[in-house]
Amino acid sequence: xxxxxxxxxxxxxxxxxAGESSGxxxxxxxxxxxxxxxxxxxxxxxxxxxxxxxxxxxxxxxTVIDGDRGSRHSLTGCMDCHNPATAEPVVRYEDPEHxxxxxxxxxxxxxxxxxxxxxxGLEQTGQSRRDDQPAWRAERNRLTAMSLQQxxxxxRGE
Amino acid sequence: xxxxxxxxxVKPARRQFLRGAAALASVALAPGLxxxxxxxxxxxxxxxxxxxxxxxxxxxxxxDVDACVSACQREHGWRAEDGSATDAQWVRKVKLRxxxxxxxxxxxxMCQHCEHPPCVDVCPTGASFKRADGIVLVNKHTCIGCRxxxxxxxxxxxxxxxxxxxxxxxxxxxxxxxxxxxxLCVHRVDRDGADAVPACAEAxxxxxxxxxxxxxxxxxxxGISQALREFGATRLRADMGLNPGVGYRGL
Lengths: 158, 251
Hints:
The structure holds two protein chains of two kinds.
Chain A: H1 2-21, H2 45-64, H3 75-82, H4 99-107, H5 134-145, H6 148-155
Chain B: H1 12-23, E1 27-30, E2 33-36, E3 51-56, H2 62-76, E4 91-97, E5 104-110, H3 118-122, E6 128-130, E7 136-138, H4 148-152, E8 159-160, E9 179-180, H5 186-192, H6 199-204, E10 212-216, H7 223-231, E11 246-249
Parallel strand pairs in B: 3-11
Antiparallel strand pairs in B: 1-2, 3-10, 4-5, 6-7, 8-9
């Protein structure tokens, strides 16, 4: 399935390149604004581009069923950096400039994450920030110590 | 009362079969390529504990129960829109009135986090489930909104979301077409463990007056177990043998 998707991706990128060179396809390739609040993403950018959906799919069961609230791959974590509560003006997933929407619109991907989940980081009253949570810190440190290959295997549940 | 469900014995032959099925749960197609992998039990959820609540009906005034409801609304971002029958109701204010004497009291009634939850039995997708630590939840990723669980629940604890929602809180994702109910403030429980205080308890407990206890029912030294030993508790509809994790003192 994955390799099939990759082939499809390669084909799509080929079409996009062909479109650019021949003067058709005036749609700009999205380049979402990177947050300035963190030095780096939880994974290298090229890994996130290809794997973020697998990270999130795996993490959602870990959180809902196993109660793991300290995962480094959490949608809340994405939004805390990429669409923080302090962002002005407020950007929604429906807006084309939303961090997630920019690429999903370009690739024609329809997701329903934000029908339930908050599409922006929100300060929760009475809640501690994620970085105040010992479990989250410990998990982050453990995973940072792993190699990239180990982390990918971990997030795929292997 | 002895629990009916505890009397059901799993016969050895069936047990053997189940054990074999568990071994087959991980099916390897080739080295490193699995058709299906059995997930290990959650490392974060302790199956040795069972979280529960003890609610002191004697200590709660009508205002206190209102405070429980509004604290839950603030914590999880739900609200009763216009009082219609389809409003979200994670916790309801229930009025008990003794006709003979006119004596009235109010109770907060939420998901009772049963040991044998009927909502889990009837769910066709497994979205309605009981966590290893006894908290009964809806996995909204797999909920198809059929509402069987709402019909099965004898406590009317669950509600269905009919409208498109916006501005949900990060700790409580909720959206149209799924069923929801009290989560026992699971995000607080996962963060603080035995020290967690659910929002409703936080709203009514004051220094020197404990009205709602939260804790591990399996730990005889926990505050809730000691309070249960001292005061006893009534379980709503205990005759059904569901063994709720929520108990009421003074009913």
